[in-house]
Amino acid sequence: MAPSFMQVTTSLLNASLYTLGIFFITLACAIPLGAFVCACGRSKFKPLSFLTKIFIWIIRGTPLMLQIIVIFYFSSFPRFVAACVAFSINYAAYFAEIYRGGLESIPVGQYEACKVLGMTKLQTNFKIVFPQVVKRITAPMGNEIITLVKDTSLANIIAISEIILTAKEFIKSGSLWPLLYTAVFYLTFTAIITLLLRYAEKKMSYYR
Q1: What domains does the chain contain, in order, with CATH numbers?
Q2: pTM
Q3: Residues 203, 167: contact at Cβ < 8 Å?
Q4: What integer best gives the mean pLDDT of the chain?
Q5: Residue 131 and residue 121: Cα distance in Å, rounded?
Q6: Are 57 and 146 a contacting pair, CB within 8 Å?
Q7: CA dihedral sign, ordered 50, 52, 53, 54
């Protein structure tokens, strides 16, 4: 029996709770973790910075799907927790590189000027450097955040009933349209995020 539109919509709305859960938990964990990884990578302690670069290379060089499988099957984490851990580690590596690029884009002259003015390292970072870094990394961070919305579908590889897996269940009844209907949910999520990111960029365009 073919599913009704309301039945499919209700199922996908319930499944979207898993999708949104993975999305928000990943952001909450990956944003600060990425800053920590970035700090380790820029450390003057060579063994630490070297190991951090190896970690980033491995995470960025292997598929997220494989990382989800490895963490789930080689740990005692429940499915949802394993997915969140995998996503958080993966995105922390990408965010770390974005942070690094933002920090390295600040001219050395600004640090020297702050030193001449008698500013402490803490004052230099929080009053001069970090505000500029945040402004410069907003666009690349936004791209990664939008990608994260779509990447949450990879959680179905370990049987988490997110949107895609839920829609695929309806295929058994001979209906393909529920799977295509998931595009509406992803487009809605990305549209909301895009609007929020544009608002943030507009607020930080204080030189225009």
Answers
A1: 5-204 (1.10.3720.10)
A2: 0.90
A3: no
A4: 90
A5: 15
A6: no
A7: positive
